[in-house]
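Our preliminary data section would be incomplete without showing what the modeling component actually yields. Below, a chain of 173 amino acids is followed by its predicted structure, encoded as tokens that our downstream tools consume directly.
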Amino acid sequence: MNALLKTAAFESLRYATMAWTSIVSWWTSFWEWYFWTPELRPIRQYFYSDTDVPEDAVTVPEGAIYIEEWMWNGYKRCVVRYPGDPIPTEWPAHPCVQTAKCPWIWVGDRNTEIDLTQTFAKFLVPGNRITMDLVEKLIRVTDRTRLVYIEYGSFEEKEFPGEGLLIKANGPL
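Predicted structure:
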């Protein structure tokens, strides 16, 4: 059989297979969505705490940080709650629907050049505040740690603020 004919036949079968797989995947996804829409809730909920947290807590206890993990467009996003904040039991809407404005281009430790940009990316949810308490739970912070970020827009290197960085919703310019 001619090599060109073999190649044409192989490519035709390959594209037909890809088309069939796409159609079946779309059809299955559609019917799963239509009949089995899951309840709106985070995929995981947990505390960062050095002490035990009671299971029946209605507010975040002192010394703890509450995290809700959500999946959105294939990405994990985390909602953070600090001591005194209520722990939700119902979610009227997905917290990640509204896009977030990223306040940094780069964030990390200036002394060691450790890049924390991807570590903090999952916390880019409007309304979140990334504080030093959260940072201390995520990475090892010593007296030599100098946490800085390069501000989006001005490209200025700034010290990580003590009150934390507030993640705002993306809006009109």
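The two ends are 62 Å apart (CA to CA). The CA atoms of residues 28 and 34 lie 10 Å apart. Preliminary results of this kind motivate Aim 1 of the renewal.
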